[in-house]
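Task: complex structure prediction.
Instruction: return structure tokens for all chains below.
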Amino acid sequence: MSQLTDLAEVVERALRAPSVHNTQPWLWRIRPGAVELHADWTRHLVATDPDRRDLVLSCGAALHHLQVALADRGLAGHVERLPDPEDCGHLATITIRPGTGDAADAALFPGIDPRRTERRRMSHRPVPARHLSTLEEQASRAGAVLLPVTSPAMRHRLAAALTEAARTQAHTPGYGAELQLWTRRHAGGRDGIPASNVPPPPVGLVGSSLLRHFPPGQLRQPRHLPGHGPADDAAELLVIATPGDDELDRLRAGEASSAVLLVATRLGLATTPLSQALELNTTRQMLQQEVLHIPEHPQLILRIGWPATAAAELPLTPRRDLRSVLLQD
Ligand SMILES: Cc1cc2nc3c(=O)[nH]c(=O)nc-3n(C[C@H](O)[C@H](O)[C@H](O)COP(=O)(O)O)c2cc1C
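Output:
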């Protein structure tokens, strides 16, 4: 098989990366011995994501998925991030180098297919400390920090930031239109969030009230086990943060998020990226200064827990074909 075919198959695996509203805001160019990743600004959610943070994070997640898929094929790649100062949309070039792929990256490959965004109630079973340490190690390997929000006081303030973000965005011109646009795609559409991946209201269960409110979907909540009420969701809330807050930091935050999501999936954990509180300056600052008290910049919240015992398997969300996302020139 030719190396170009290999690279096309590797890029195809990268398309399974998570992205804000499943916009898949990326374009790829495959050249002999190299792959380029470009932002697709036409897929930018202008009202939801004014800083383009979610867009660059989504591309960073795809970049990390690409590295994992390359390593799984036994290919070594050198990543140059933001290689062209004249073109801010050219996010990375990955050049194939002699040698075998990184074993730690390759170990994450089995997480790509089963990973899903879980918006239902999670289990009441706590995530063990050793698993949290593994997740933190993955984030730091990828150049970010992962900070658990553990104490009741911190969680309370985080919930306040998320509630405030939801309230502000409800009045932001264009925000509701973007939600509708990306959750009500035409039949057979290959992007956006299908109704089958969103639970119907009420979403006001403890824990899930922190989630973004999408138009009501068809995903059924798992039934409660005897002796456990709706407040028993023991999902952890963890924040990905970076030393700075420029394009490179956001790209790396996306890579680190992908690493954490893939290792969590490998451990059997369910995951939900939550970006609402990071989409507004006010609530992002609340998170940094009043919740976490850190000099680093928060980039994304990850909700991670065991799937509820009776939860049915989540449907796979669609992705655009490889040919729709390839730059040909
Ligand atoms: C940067 C980023 C932000 C996201 N924000 C949210 C969010 O606020 N709420 C949510 O339910 N899902 C969020 N997601 C998850 C996406 O909606 C999800 O990845 C996409 O619909 C594809 O589905 P999948 O993850 O099941 O493959 C986010 C994903 C990324 C990468």
